[in-house]
Amino acid sequence: MVGFLKMEWLYCMHSKRLIYGSNRVFDFLVLWILPIGLLLLLSSLFFVSNRNVLHRIVYILFSVPTLFMLCMRPRELKELLREPLALAFLVFSAWALTSLLWSPEPTADTDLFKRPLNTFMLFGGCGLLLHYRNELFKPIFFSAAVIALVVSLCNLVAFVKGFEPGMRMIGGRGALDNPLLSSHLFGFFSVYWLYVCMTTQRLKVLWFSAPALAVMLAAVLATGSRTPLVALTLTILWMTFVSRNRRSALLIAGMILGAAGLLLLYPEVITNRGSSFRFELWGMSLQRIAEHPWIGHSYDSELYLTLADGNELREPHSFALGVLYYVGIIGFIPWIFMLGWGLYKGLKERAQPLFILASSLLAYGIGAGLTEGGGILSRPKEHWFLLWIPLAIITGLSIAQRRRSLLSIPVQNLQPEDFERLCADAHVIEADGLGPKVLRLADGRFLKVFRPRRWYTSGSFNPYSERFASNAEQLRSLGIPTPQILGVYRLRDASSAVSYTPLPGLTLRQALQSLDNSLRESLIERFGQFMAQLHERGVYFRSLHLGNVLLMEDGEFGLIDIADLRIYPSPLRNALRQRNLRHMQRYPQDRAWLFETHFEQLAKGYASVASPGATAKIREHVLALASTAA
């Protein structure tokens, strides 16, 4: 009997170590590997030697980690399959693979099966990244855009120095070896800088992004390709439609003036190559499509189009015609649904700026696909930037929004006079040298003001007011009481603010001061349980101390001042738990109550929720600090 119990205990310990280890692996992959993978996916074509390097980067740093994480946690796959775009892609891919049954030349090429899986992992990886690490998305995109900007500027300078009539610029040596394919990436990042110009409220950012946009547009023109010009025109129309602000009118006026100037000064850019055989190619493609209109010629069939001059091409130069040729009308239905749903989602959620970016990139891809491309599923390359990357981003944003990790409250622009009116008769609760920080408004609401940070810091990419509101929504979804968010504001001076209904109750520090020793022990034990619940749910509150925890009127604990908070995918690792305790030990009164007089009660409450191993680490940490202090 004793031997059996010992074996059971060893099994439980081994199982807990496996769970702890798998959590650490999952966290490492989603918090560090996926962001690096996305950055390299967006930027590596500008500096790698060939596309095979990009393929390996995507496989190793994005697709394989995503597949591994979805297998580790099937609930993440369930969340992905709740998205219409992901389901439509699966239907499209399934039909494409089914079409291999009537392939004219049956093949055992396994790459045909890996391509849909690799693309689906792009959807899954964006879903995981934008849910668990969405604060990195803007910096990642900005970093990739800066890399594209620097490389494009260098190439432009070299192109101008060696320019001869008829020359067309390519993206540089290595992977970007074709003017048209290079123009896809230049146009993609032109859309990004255009989005920044349309949405930023900071003058310094505008002064940087406007020249960056000009450089990327010059790179597009230097390629001599007209496809991205059509796509950018559609993008501008879409962006003005979904934004509907004063800058939209300026954007339309700028587009008209730019088109007029191009036609007057350099009309040959538009007219010197005629139709480039597009109408002839489309006509021949439609004739081939008519042979098998419903089921297509199969996913792996070859398409050869011979022009009048004898040249032979293997693409219809239209994504839509390519889909109809390979998988027919049946396959075309889920494909066109993905495009329509992506635009609809961008229009519906236009209050969230990232949806404007993603849907604008999709509009650009649709425009470029009108006269370019033809393959339906490919390995990672330039064509991914036209459809699959924008669709994957929209999928990820939708998942993050549904799971409340993305701010759902629209950010309102608050004019100075409106701010003064809002703060009239307000009572200042907290202030610093720059002015009020927390105010109690006349109607009982609280207003917390966050001062602007430097434009290149994380506070610029993700304002603390939005972090505060997003953290409040996520904590409430976890059952942890937090202030009810009423509004998020952007101020003229680049400050931001959030208004909320305060939680009723006293800070835990105030409550402990008013209690005798026995009641204080009971309350500290309950606080130990609450702290363990936070840690087990992955909540890492950097500023956790007794002044930021409320004892509410119903006896429950709540959190306030939550801008400096992060929710991890798994229960916190031991190092973060210990760091949390170190922060609380910085406050003399907190340290005396929690870690000196009543530490046993704190540890007892913590042990009732956390694992014995985590509790033992906490004990070791506190005793080590106590001995060091002694």
Radius of gyration: 29 Å
Poorly predicted runs? none
Distance between the termini: 46 Å
By DSSP (H or I, 4+ residues per run), the number of helices equals 24
Oligomer: single chain
For the secondary structure, the number of strands is: 13
Give the amount of beta strand, in percent.
5-15%
Could you give the order of strands across the largest sheet?
3-7-8-6-5-4
Structural class assignment: alpha+beta
Global geometry? globular
Q: What's the mean pLDDT score?
A: 88
Task: Write a structural description.
The chain has 630 residues and is of the alpha+beta class. Helices cover 62% and strands 9% of the residues. The protein is built from 24 helices and 13 strands. The protein has helices at residues 2-43, 51-72, 74-81, 84-98, 111-132, 137-161, 179-199, 203-222, 227-243, 246-265, 268-271, 278-289, 319-348, 353-369, 388-402, 416-422, 458-461, 464-477, 508-513, 517-536, 574-584, 588-597, 599-607, 612-629; strands at 305-306, 312-313, 411-414, 427-432, 435-440, 446-450, 484-491, 496-501, 505-507, 539-541, 549-552, 557-559, 565-567. Helix 1 runs antiparallel to helix 2 (51-72) and helix 22 (588-597) crosses helix 23. The model has no long low-confidence stretch (mean pLDDT 88).
